[in-house]
Design a protein that fits this description.
172 residues; 0% strand; globular
């Protein structure tokens, strides 16, 4: 495979957008950590969902993906660390999206509207990796900022809607 020289990219998110993503990531990571800690310490009612392997592995891949993805997006780009951590983040996202296919507790065993994020994650990751390999760093960057916010933070916030497992773990 031919290596394409990286192009310098001037495209960047405004400070307000970065601040909003940092706030959302902190809020989501904090709420998720508290909810999971409450469930692990027996402070929440025991539920069938809490014992499903797909849910547990999904959560185990999402929790580190929140701060790691933000780090990769905000830290220096293009070096070996960026590439290594980006690959780890991509594997975490693929794991979370794949396992989400098997989580069907809120719609009587059927897919629900939140499953629409699964193909979004797959497609965005594929396109982002392809863009980076082709040297289109501007597109790579746009896709990953979008994937982080629309493929991780947004569905993460939806996981706390009333009636969902994380809502029960956090509120009850």
């Amino acid at each position: 495979m031919a290596v394409i020289a990286q192009q310098e990219v001037a495209i960047d998110l405004p400070r307000m957008a970065k601040g909003a993503l940092l706030f959302g990531a902190t809020l989501l990571a904090g709420a998720t950590t508290i909810a999971v800690a409450r469930a692990l310490t027996g402070m929440t009612p025991s539920t069938y969902e809490a014992r499903q392997a797909a849910i547990l592995i999904h959560l185990a891949s999402v929790l580190p993906a929140i701060p790691l993805g933000l780090w990769v997006l905000l830290a220096r780009k293009g070096d070996a660390r960026h590439k290594r951590l980006g690959r780890i983040w991509a594997v975490l996202m693929l794991t979370a999206a794949t396992l989400a296919i098997f989580i069907r507790t809120i719609n009587h065993g059927q897919f629900s509207w939140i499953h629409l994020f699964v193909p979004v994650v797959f497609l965005a990751l594929f396109r982002a990796i392809r863009a980076a390999r082709r040297g289109n760093i501007a597109q790579h960057k746009r896709l990953l900022w979008t994937l982080y916010s629309a493929g991780l933070l947004l569905p993460g916030m939806f996981a706390f809607l009333p009636g969902r497992l994380l809502w029960h773990w956090l509120m009850l």
